[in-house]
Amino acid sequence: DIQMTQSPSSLSASVGDRVTITCQASQDISNSLNWYQQKPGKAPKLLIYDASNLETGVPSRFSGSGFGTDFTFTISSLQPEDIATYYCQQYDNLPLTFGGGTKVEIK
Amino acid sequence: QVQLQESGPGLVKPSETLSLTCTISGDSVTSANYYWSWIRQPPGKGLEWIGYIYYSGSTNYNPSLKSRVTMSVDTSKKQFSLKLSSVTAADTAVYYCARSPYSSFKVLWFDPWGQGTLVTVSS
User: Fold this and answer.
1) Does A43 touch chain B if contact means CB atoms closer than 8 Å?
2) Which residues of B touch A44 (CB under 8 A)?
3) Once rounded to an integer, what is the mean pLDDT over residues B60-67?
4) What is the pLDDT of residue B31?
5) Between A and B, how many CB-CB pairs are < 8 A?
6) How many Cα atoms occupy the beta-carbon half-sphere of A4 within 13 Å?
7) CA distance A47 to chain B (A)
8) In sequence order, what are the residues at sequence separation of 6 or more whose Cβ sits closer than 8 angstroms to the Cβ of residue B70?
9) Distance (Å, rounded) from C-alpha A23 to C-alpha B73?
10) Which one of A33, A93, B52, B84 has the fewest CB atoms closer than 10 angstroms to its CB?
11) With 90 as the cut, is the pLDDT of residue A87 above it?
């Protein structure tokens, strides 16, 4: 199985701050990586697919980058509605696997 | 707009079989470019892919659950289903269904998701 390691597991930032989350794959997955946002009590929502493509309707303050084993998810200016847990997910190999999640809170 | 809705018992006894159904609206379970997936999330924990099914009946399951999982599809009812046998407390989780696009021999991502249903395993 491909292990997906996310860091940090949680962070606290102020409104307007730039927030960065990393996801490292245990082997090369090309650009086969997606990012999801899960708000409390809700289902996850796809934000970024193929490492860097923004899903339709997702605000442009969200972005993703990376290739191979190292990936980054960025919120350019944190907003109160961005409070959530964010997960990466690889689809290069079965079984499909997720990172452990990063909980983002407002300072 | 595609919507998915999970349904099934919220409480299952240990050693019994968990059975859930996902009903699709706004799309067809026979859509050529989509697989239909199940994912679960234990309370306070992360996400685990359970498996997916194509309308033809072709399936792929997570090896960690493969011996206990069965998925099926009912094209007439626009539904697909999950059965997980011999459950224990470790199977207590919110279970989600989701649509998964397929390209270049790979299932890609999960979008959209159902709202999820909590299944508790307890006597």
Assistant:
1) yes
2) 47, 96, 110, 113
3) 98
4) 86
5) 53
6) 32
7) 10
8) B82, B83, B85
9) 34
10) A93
11) yes
